């Protein structure tokens, strides 16, 4: 399966929550996600991400998830594989042994909901601010770009000011660190 998403920076998180509630969307309580992003050792920021596998170790509520994403259409339309791992440190060592290097740490508070068959994530990312993501799972024969346009229309139909970004959180954090 492909995971396809669109991401937006929020100026008014409360307005988004209210607009979602008006559409019957109930958001979960916030959970803390502590993510370590990894890239192949030969890859550098500024290089294309298309076709390159990237890894993530996430800890949430004492549970560790290992994820690999490989962008297909763009950075936000990826083949994705995910599984629970028992030991985060051992998985970190395995990733480094396989030629992956840690890039950035992403810590966020996430609330989730569903609307019209779409997964929504309302994120407060340390060092970046508030974002909303809309995500859909599609078959490998579907166009990620076409689904992104549908998701964009859905988010914009809320009538809340948002600024779309095509960068992933790791790239946004890396840019913020370089600028500051």
TrEMBL record:
Q: What SMART domains does this protein's entry cite?
A: CYTH
Positions of the CYTH domain = 1-175
Q: What InterPro entries does this protein map onto? A: Adenylyl_cyclase_CyaB, CYTH-like_dom_sf, CYTH_domain
Spans through the membrane: none
Q: Which Gene3D superfamilies match?
A: Hypothetical Protein Pfu-838710-001
Name of the molecule in the record: CYTH domain-containing protein
